[in-house]
Design a protein that fits this description.
Strand order of the largest sheet: 3-2-1-4-5-10-11
Number of strands: 11
Helix content: 40-55%
Radius of gyration: 22 Å
CATH class of the largest domain: Alpha Beta
Distance between the termini: 60 Å
Strand content: 15-25%
Number of domains: 2
CATH architecture of the largest domain: 3-Layer(aba) Sandwich
Amino acid sequence: MATKVNKIGVLTSGGDAPGMNAAIRAVVRTATYNGLEAFGIMRGFMGMIDDDIVPMPSRSVANIIQRGGTILKTARCKEFYEREGREKAYKNLKKLGIDGLVIIGGDGSFRGADLFSREFDIPCIGLPGTIDKDIAGTDFTIGFDTAVNTAVEAIDKIRDTADAHDRLFIIEVMGRDAGYIALHSGIATGAETVLIPERKTDVEEIVRSLQEKERRKKLVNIIVVAEGEDFGGGNEVAKFIAERMPNADTRVCILGHIQRGGSPSCLDRLIASRMGYSAVESLMIGRHNVMVGILNNRMYYTPLEKAVKAKQKLSDDWLKIIRILAS
């Protein structure tokens, strides 16, 4: 028989992602609709330890669905790695009567939530909030669509300058461990090649390809590089190419944290709203310690212990598409 949940805490943890506010709103409004109390936990797990927890009535989430970032703030919390810190967090939750948690974040956040729920009697639900789209068990993560569209818009503008000057532009996007932003933005902007952490970078092959295109008088080229690719990132790739092709007019542009911010796209608002609603519904029916995802447009629930171990696998078809379309 499902344990009745009366008070739900919601927090955002790890890197911020556009759409987190939409998810917070959905959790609070769904809880309120069902007669439950909602509480916002500030600065992720740190707020649990510091007892920085505030009631969140329905009106507290008015006018936030369109805002980037997170109104609950986010932070890394080393204290939560220790049993003493987690026990302190638990006591603060119990003091307020909070008997369910919704954690919006990435695999690191889920790892902490899974451990916490195993040690104490607080059921947890994870919502995948990360621009990297590197979590298995969901077709979408909150923030990815906005981030990749920010990258696409920037690369399109850079291409205008590349075309005006016959330049080679190497554009570095976010993705320390996963290449999805690079891959999707590269295909969408007609990049010559995309360098990602999941594949070893063959810079000699890149140079040969650029030299062949130079012979065909194709002087405008875009290379999209994920920051975590194994050669060292955009600047290192540019340095190598400049040494081998000194006549090429080469420029580097690192997009950086611009990809994290901004108003969330329609898709991110929709999936965040669906996931937030499903998180509360899950707690109410006793479906605990799972990550809420969307697969084939249907809600999908992955146990937290599996969600922290599995990574979204990248298909070789994507790289084949780039090679063919950029030829």
